[in-house]
C-alpha cells in the first residue's frame, strides 16, 4: 500500500512549538473552569499531575517506536503488524475522535466569539470563516502548520504571561488555600479526566516519520510537555488568585474574564480585544493541527497518496458536527463529559496498546522464524 | 466553453495535488518519485524546445524573419495531440491568425520547405562566403539594407605591397580562382566592380589592393574608434606584404587592426549578433569569415546615483542602462576570481543578453542549475526588462510578496553574491535581480550593514514597525471604532466621537475615500511633469489635510491615521514589497470592516500560512524564522559585523563560514564571548574557523 | 428558504469534489487503496451538513 506522499520534514523547534501550541491553547478554552470543578483551590495541581502522567506515557511510546519501529508512524506500525484492515479501523477511530475534538472545540470557540466580540453575527458565518481558515492552513500541509505554530508560539507565551502578570493588582493568594482543595482524590480524578488534552503523545506518534531527525523527538516531547504544564499551571494559578474558588467553576471563558479585569492605569485597561488576536490565532493553529492529524491518519490508514482533496468534506463535517448540539450548554457538556472524560482512551491507551500489540506480534513472528 | 482555470480547479482533481515545489535541500529517498515525475515532464519540455529551435535555425529565424508565423506560434504551443488541425495550419503558413498547434515533425518539414523560397542565400546557418560581392549581398539581405538605413556597409581597399606579384608575374585576380571556395560563380555581381578593381592596382603601381567591407549599426558604435582604429590603419597605414588570400584575414587581425578585442568568426550566426551588439564586422575579399572588432559606444546614462534605494552612509552609485557597465560595477566591487558571469540570450526575434552571476565555490550548484533551467525555459520574441524576466522565473507570480529581490545597487548585489545568492542582469535594465530571497531581506536596507549595529538594528525595528503600520493601521482603526470601542480610553473615545460628529459617512467609506485620494496623489506624483511637481504637494495637502476636514467629510483623526499609513508605507525599502503592502492593506481593511478583530486575525493567519509555505527558488520565504534555523542574527535586528560570521543557512551554501569565529582576537571586549561560543580553538585564528 | 437553497451549494459542491477525488484515486492507484471511505466521509459530511442547514433554516 502506498504511503502518504507528504514530503514535509519538520525540525525539532517547529515540532516543539507545534505540540506546545496544541496543548497550551486550552488555557484559552474552558479547561481552567473544567479543572476547577474537580479541584477548586487545588486545581493548579491537575495540569501538573496529568502532565507528568502524559510525559511518562509519551516516553514509553517513544521508546517503543524508536526501538522497534524507526521511521514509522503509528498507522504504519499497526498495518505492518496487525494488517491493513485493523490499520484502517484504527485510523478511522483516531480520525473520528480528532474530528469530534475539532468540532467541539470549534463550537466552544464560536460561542465565545459570539458572546464576546461579534454578538450580532450568525454562528454559521463565524464558524464558516473559521473553518475556511483552518481548512486552508491544513491544505498547506504539515510544514505550513508547523511554521505558523513557530510564529504563534511566542504570541501564545507572551499572551499567557501578559494575562497572568497584568492582573497582578487583583491577586489574592489566600484564594489558593486550603492547599488540597476538594481533596487529593478529587484532584487525581480531575487530572485523569482532563488528561486528554495532552494530545501530544498521539500527535508525535503520527508525525514520527516527518521529523528531520526522529532522535530529537524525545527532547521535543519532554520540552513541549514541560512548557505546556508551566503555561497551564501558571494560568490556572493566576485565575484562582483572581477569582473566588466557586466563581472559577462557572465562568464560560476564563481567559476572557481575566482579560476584562486588566486595569493598570489609564491606558492599560480593557485589553480583552487584544487577546482576541492571540486567542483566535492560537485556536486556528490548534484546530489546524487536529484536523491535519485526522486527515493524515485517514490518508495513511486507507493508503491514499494525499489527503488534500478530502479537506472540503472534513471541514464541512467539522462545521456540521459543531453545530449539532442545540445550545451552548449541551455543547459544553458533550465536550466535558464525553470527549474529555474518555479522551484518554484514544490519547494514551490506544497508542500504547497498539504499539505493545505490534511489538508482541513482531517478537512472535521472529520467534517463529527462528 | 472555456472554463477559467481557477474554477476548473474547484471541480477537478489531477496529479497536481501530490506535486511538491523545488527545494534546495538534498532529496531524500522518499522524495525521488514525485521529483522524477515532474523532472521528466520538464525534461521533455526542454527537449521539445531544443529540437524546436534546431528546426527553426534552418530557415534563418531571427535575422531573415523568415519563420512562417503560423508555424512559429504553433511550434511553441507544442501539443502533439492535435495533429489534424495542425496540418491545416501547416498548409497555410502565411496566415498570421492560425495559432493552432502542429506536431514538431510536421513543423520541421514545413520550415525546411519554406526556407529555400524565403531566403535562398543568406541563412544564419551558412558560412560566410569568401568573395566580397557575395558577402555584401548577404549582409544587405540579412539586415534588409534596402529599407533599413541603420546598417552601414562601408567598402574600402586595403593596400598591400605585391611582392609576390613581382616573382611570378601573375595579376592579383589570378590568385582568386586558386582558393578553395567556388569563386567563379559569383561573376555576375562582381562583374560591375571589376573595372575599378582592375584600375586600382594599375594606379598604385606595385600595390596590390584587397577589397574589404566594414559593417556596423549606426548609433550603436563609437564612430571615432571606427575611423581611427579600423579605417585609418587599414586604408592609409598599411605597409605589409601581400599574403595568400586565405591568410589575409589573419594578417589584418594580427598586424593591422589595433582594436583591443578582435575575434574571427566564420558563421553568420556568430557575426550577426556581434554587429547587432555594436561591434564592427570587417570582411576581406578572398578570406571566408569576418573579424568582429569591439567598437561598442552607444549613448546611455552614465553611472549615477541610485534612484530608489538611497542611503546616507555607503556607496551612492546605482546600475545604469548599460549591460556591461552593470556587470562591471559588480566586478569592481567584488574582485574575486571565482566570481562567474555566465551569459545567456533570451528572445527569438531580438535576443536580449541575460547574465547570471555567482561566486563559484560559495553558491549552491543546485540553485545555479535551477535558475538556468528557468531562464532557458523562457521562449519569447523579445524580453525588454528585468521586470519581465522576474515574472517569467519567479515561483509564484500571483503572490503579492515578491519572490525575487530587485535592486539597483551594485554593492547590494556584491554582498548578496558573497552570501551565496545568484544575481541576474537583463539587457540594459538598470535593475538587477537577486535570488533566492527571504521575506526578511525585503525589509533590509544596505545601510543597516554599513551603520554600527545598534543603529542598524534601530532602523530595522523602525522599518518593521512601519511595515505593520502600513499594513494594519486603517484596518485597526476601522475595527476599533466599529467593533471594539471599549478598547479606547473613555476620553479618547469621546474625542473621536466628537470629531466624527460632523461626518455623515460610515468609517469605512471615510477611510476608503482618503485611501483613494492618497493613492491618487502617489500615482499623480510620479506621472506629473517635474515642472509642476511641487503643485501636487500643495494641492494634495490642501485637499486632504484641511479642506476635507473643514467640509466635514472626514474626521481629523482619520487624516492622521491615513497620513501615518502613507508615511509608513514609504519607509518600506523594497518597491515591490511596498506594492504588496499597499494592496494587502485593502484586504485587511475589508476583513476588519466586516468582522472586526476576528476577521483581521483570520486574514492574518491566512496570510501567515500562505507565506510560510511559499518558496523562493527552493528556499522557504520565512526562513530562518519558520522553519527555524540557527544562523547569524540578520532577521529582525542587525547583529554586530564581527559576529555575523556565518552565511545564511537557508541558502545551503558550499562554505558556511564567511568570517573567523573570533574576528577581533585582540579585543578584551568581544573575545570572551567568542571563546564561550566556539571554545578555545578560536585562539589560533587561521585554524579555528571551519574555513 | 432562499438561504437554505443558496447554502446548499456548498455541500453539493463538496460532494461533487469528494466524488471526483474518489474517482481520481481509483484511476491512479487502482486496487491498491480503499476508496470507499472517501465516498463514506463525503456522504456523512453531506448528510450532516444538509441536516444542520435544514434545522437552521427550515424547521
Helicity level of chain B: 40-55%
Shape of chain B: elongated
Pair of chains with the largest interface and how many residues each contributes: A-B, 46 and 39 residues
Indicate the CATH topology of chain A. Amino acid/polyamine transporter I
User: What portion of residues of chain A is helical?
Assistant: over 70%
Lateral arrangement of strands in the main beta sheet of chain B: 1-2-4-5-3
Intertermini distance of chain A: 27 Å
Unreliable runs of chain A: none
- How many structural domains of chain B? 4
Strand percentage of chain A, roughly?
Answer: under 5%
Determine Rg of chain B (CA atoms, Å).
33 Å
Give the overall form of chain A: globular
How many distinct folded domains of chain A?
1
Identify low-pLDDT runs of chain B: 29-75, 77-96, 116-121, 164-205, 685-691
Please identify the structural class of chain B as seen in this structure: alpha+beta
- Looking at CATH, the homologous superfamily of chain A is Amino acid/polyamine transporter I
In total, the number of strands of chain A is: 2
Average residue pLDDT of chain A: 87
How would you characterize the largest beta sheet of chain B? 5 strands, antiparallel
Mean pLDDT across the residues of chain B is 78
Describe the sheet with the most strands of chain A: 2 strands, antiparallel
Topology:
The complex is a heterotrimer of chains A (370), B (691) and C (59).
Chain A (H helix, E strand, L loop, with lengths): L11 H13 L6 H9 L5 H24 L5 H9 L1 H33 L6 H17 L1 H26 L17 H11 L5 H8 L9 H26 L2 H4 L5 H8 L1 E2 L3 E2 L2 H31 L8 H13 L4 H42 L1
Helix pairs in contact in A: 1-7, 1-10, 1-13, 2-8, 3-8, 3-9, 3-10, 3-15, 4-5, 4-15, 5-6, 5-13, 5-14, 5-15, 6-13, 6-14, 7-10, 7-13, 9-15
Chain B lengths: L4 H7 L20 H26 L3 H4 L4 H8 L6 H9 L12 H15 L13 H11 L8 E11 L1 H6 L18 H5 L2 H11 L2 E11 L5 H13 L12 H9 L5 E4 L2 H9 L3 E5 L5 E4 L29 H11 L5 E8 L5 E8 L5 H12 L9 H8 L11 E3 L2 H10 L2 E5 L5 E4 L10 H5 L2 H30 L7 H11 L6 H21 L5 H18 L5 H15 L4 H39 L1 E2 L2 E2 L50 H8 L6 H4 L3
Antiparallel strand pairs in B: 1-2, 2-4, 3-5, 4-5, 6-7, 7-9, 8-10, 9-10, 11-12
Helix pairs in contact in B: 2-6, 4-6, 14-17, 19-23, 19-24, 21-22, 21-23
Chain C lengths: L1 H28 L6 H22 L2
Helix pairs in contact in C: 1-2
Amino acid at each position: 500500500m502506498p504511503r502518504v506522499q507528504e514530503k514535509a520534514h519538520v525540525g525539532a523547534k517547529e515540532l516543539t512549538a507545534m505540540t506546545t501550541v496544541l496543548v497550551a491553547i486550552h488555557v484559552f478554552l474552558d479547561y481552567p473552569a473544567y479543572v476547577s470543578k474537580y479541584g477548586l483551590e487545588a486545581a493548579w495541581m491537575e495540569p501538573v499531575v496529568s502532565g507528568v502522567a502524559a510525559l511518562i506515557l509519551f516516553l514509553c511510546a517513544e521508546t517503543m517506536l524508536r526501538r522497534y519501529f524507526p521511521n514509522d508512524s503509528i498507522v504504519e506500525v499497526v498495518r505492518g503488524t496487525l494488517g491493513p484492515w485493523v490499520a484502517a479501523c484504527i485510523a478511522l477511530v483516531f480520525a473520528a475522535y480528532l474530528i469530534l475534538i475539532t468540532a467541539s472545540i470549534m463550537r466552544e470557540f464560536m460561542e465565545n466569539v459570539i458572546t464576546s466580540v461579534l454578538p450580532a453575527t450568525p454562528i454559521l458565518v463565524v464558524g464558516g470563516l473559521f473553518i475556511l481558515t483552518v481548512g486552508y492552513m491544513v491544505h498547506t500541509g504539515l510544514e505550513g502548520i508547523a511554521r505558523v505554530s513557530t510564529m504563534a508560539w511566542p504570541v501564545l507565551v507572551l499572551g499567557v504571561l501578559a494575562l497572568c502578570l497584568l492582573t497582578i493588582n487583583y491577586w489574592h493568594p489566600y484564594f489558593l488555600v486550603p492547599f488540597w482543595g476538594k481533596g487529593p482524590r478529587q484532584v487525581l480524578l480531575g487530572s485523569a479526566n482532563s488528561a486528554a488534552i495532552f494530545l501530544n503523545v498521539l500527535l508525535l506518534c503520527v508525525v514520527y516519520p516527518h521529523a528531520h531527525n526522529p532522535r530529537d523527538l524525545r527532547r521535543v516531547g519532554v520540552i513541549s510537555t514541560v512548557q505546556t504544564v508551566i503555561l497551564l499551571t501558571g494560568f490556572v494559578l493566576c485565575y484562582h488568585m483572581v477569582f473566588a474558588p466557586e466563581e472559577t467553576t462557572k465562568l464560560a471563558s476564563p481567559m476572557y474574564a481575566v482579560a476584562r479585569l486588566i486595569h493598570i492605569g489609564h491606558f492599560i485597561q480593557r485589553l480583552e480585544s487584544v487577546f482576541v488576536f492571540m486567542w483566535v490565532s492560537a485556536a486556528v493553529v490548534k484546530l489546524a493541527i487536529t484536523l491535519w492529524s485526522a486527515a493524515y491518519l485517514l490518508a495513511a490508514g486507507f493508503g491514499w497518496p494525499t489527503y488534500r482533496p478530502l479537506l472540503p468534506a472534513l471541514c464541512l463535517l467539522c462545521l456540521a458536527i459543531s453545530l449539532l448540539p442545540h445550545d451552548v450548554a449541551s455543547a459544553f457538556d458533550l465536550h466535558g463529559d464525553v470527549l474529555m472524560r474518555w479522551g484518554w482512551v484514544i490519547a494514551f491507551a490506544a497508542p500504547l496498546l497498539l504499539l505493545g500489540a505490534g511489538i508482541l506480534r513482531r517478537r512472535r513472528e521472529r520467534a517463529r522464524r527462528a | 466553453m472555456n472554463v477559467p482555470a481557477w474554477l476548473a480547479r474547484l471541480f477537478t482533481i489531477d496529479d497536481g495535488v501530490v506535486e511538491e515545489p523545488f527545494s534546495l535541500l538534498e532529496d531524500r529517498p522518499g522524495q525521488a518519485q514525485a521529483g522524477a515525475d515532474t523532472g521528466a515532464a520538464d525534461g521533455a519540455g526542454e527537449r521539445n524546445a531544443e529540437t524546436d529551435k534546431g528546426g527553426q535555425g534552418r530557415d534563418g529565424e531571427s535575422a531573415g524573419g523568415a519563420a512562417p508565423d503560423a508555424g512559429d506560434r504553433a511550434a511553441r504551443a507544442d501539443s502533439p495531440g492535435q495533429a489534424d488541425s495542425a496540418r491545416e495550419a501547416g498548409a497555410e503558413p502565411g496566415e498570421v491568425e492560425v495559432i493552432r498547434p502542429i506536431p514538431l515533425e510536421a513543423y520541421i518539414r514545413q520550415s525546411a520547405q519554406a526556407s529555400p523560397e524565403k531566403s535562398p542565400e543568406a541563412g544564419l546557418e551558412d558560412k560566410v562566403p569568401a568573395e566580397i560581392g557575395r558577402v555584401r549581398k548577404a549582409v544587405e539581405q540579412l539586415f534588409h539594407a534596402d529599407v533599413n538605413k541603420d546598417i552601414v556597409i562601408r567598402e574600402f581597399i586595403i593596400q598591400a605591397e605585391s611582392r609576390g606579384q613581382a616573382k611570378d608575374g601573375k595579376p592579383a585576380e589570378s590568385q582568386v580562382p586558386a582558393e578553395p571556395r567556388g569563386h567563379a560563380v559569383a561573376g555576375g555581381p562582381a562583374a560591375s566592380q571589376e573595372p575599378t578593381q582592375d584600375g586600382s592596382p594599375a594606379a598604385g603601381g606595385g600595390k596590390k589592393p584587397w577589397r574589404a567591407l566594414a559593417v556596423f549599426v549606426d548609433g550603436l558604435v563609437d564612430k571615432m574608434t571606427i575611423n581611427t582604429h579600423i579605417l585609418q590603419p587599414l586604408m592609409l597605414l598599411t605597409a605589409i606584404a601581400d599574403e595568400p588570400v586565405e591568410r589575409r584575414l589573419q594578417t589584418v587581425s594580427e598586424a593591422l587592426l589595433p582594436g583591443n578585442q578582435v575575434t574571427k568568426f566564420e558563421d553568420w550566426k556568430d557575426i550577426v549578433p556581434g554587429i547587432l551588439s555594436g561591434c564592427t564586422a570587417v570582411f576581406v575579399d578572398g578570406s571566408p569569415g569576418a573579424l568582429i572588432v569591439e567598437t561598442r559606444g552607444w549613448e546611455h546614462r552614465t553611472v549615477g546615483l541610485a534612484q530608489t534605494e538611497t542611503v546616507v552612509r555607503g556607496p551612492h552609485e546605482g546600475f545604469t542602462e548599460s549591460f556591461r557597465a552593470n556587470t562591471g560595477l559588480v566586478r569592481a566591487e567584488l574582485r574575486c576570481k571565482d566570481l562567474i558571469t555566465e551569459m545567456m540570450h533570451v528572445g527569438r526575434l531580438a535576443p536580449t543578453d541575460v547574465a547570471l552571476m555567482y561566486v563559484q565555490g560559495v553558491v549552491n550548484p543546485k540553485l545555479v542549475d535551477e535558475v538556468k533551467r528557468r531562464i532557458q525555459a523562457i521562449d519569447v520574441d523579445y524580453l525588454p526588462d528585468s521586470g519581465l524576466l522576474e515574472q517569467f522565473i519567479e515561483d509564484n507570480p500571483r503572490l503579492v510578496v515578491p519572490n525575487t529581490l530587485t535592486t539597483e545597487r551594485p554593492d547590494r548585489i556584491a554582498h548578496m553574491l558573497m552570501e551565496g545568492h545568484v544575481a541576474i542582469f537583463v539587457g540594459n535594465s538598470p535593475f538587477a535581480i537577486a535570488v533566492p530571497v527571504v521575506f526578511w531581506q525585503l525589509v533590509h536596507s544596505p545601510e543597516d550593514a554599513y551603520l554600527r549595529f545598534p543603529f542598524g538594528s534601530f532602523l530595522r525595528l523602525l522599518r518593521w514597525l512601519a511595515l505593520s503600520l502600513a499594513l494594519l493601521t486603517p484596518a485597526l482603526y476601522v475595527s476599533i471604532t466599529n467593533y471594539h470601542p471599549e478598547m479606547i480610553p473613555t476620553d479618547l473615545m469621546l474625542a473621536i466621537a466628537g470629531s466624527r460628529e460632523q461626518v455623515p459617512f460610515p468609517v469605512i467609506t471615510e477611510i476608503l475615500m482618503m485611501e483613494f485620494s492618497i493613492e491618487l496623489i502617489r500615482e499623480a506624483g510620479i506621472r506629473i511633469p517635474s515642472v509642476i511637481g511641487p503643485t501636487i504637494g500643495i494641492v494634495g495637502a490642501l485637499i486632504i489635510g484641511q479642506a476635507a476636514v473643514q467640509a466635514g467629510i472626514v474626521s481629523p483623526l482619520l487624516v492622521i491615521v491615513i497620513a501615518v499609513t502613507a508615511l509608513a508605507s514609504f519607509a518600506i525599502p523594497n518597491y515591490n514589497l511596498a506594492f504588496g503592502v499597499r494592496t494587502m492593506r485593502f484586504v485587511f481593511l475589508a476583513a476588519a470592516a466586516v468582522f472586526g478583530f476576528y476577521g483581521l486575525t483570520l486574514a492574518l493567519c491566512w496570510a501567515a500560512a500562505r507565506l510560510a509555505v511559499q518558496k523562493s527558488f527552493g528556499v522557504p520565504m520565512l526562513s530562518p524564522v519558520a522553519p527555524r534555523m540557527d544562523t547569524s542574527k540578520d532577521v529582525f535586528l542587525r547583529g554586530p559585523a564581527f559576529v555575523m560570521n556565518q552565511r545564511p543557512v537557508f541558502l545551503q551554501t558550499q562554505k558556511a563560514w564567511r568570517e573567523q569565529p573570533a574576528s577581533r582576537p585582540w579585543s578584551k571586549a568581544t573575545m570572551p564571548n567568542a571563546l564561550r561560543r566556539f571554545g578555545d580553538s578560536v585562539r589560533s585564528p587561521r585554524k579555528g574557523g571551519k574555513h | 428558504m432562499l438561504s437554505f437553497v443558496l447554502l446548499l451549494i456548498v455541500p453539493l459542491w463538496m460532494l461533487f469534489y469528494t466524488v471526483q477525488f474518489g474517482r481520481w484515486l481509483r484511476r491512479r492507484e487502482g486496487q491498491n487503496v480503499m476508496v470507499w471511505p472517501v465516498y463514506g466521509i463525503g456522504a456523512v459530511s453531506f448528510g450532516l451538513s444538509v441536516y444542520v442547514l435544514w434545522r437552521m433554516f427550515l424547521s
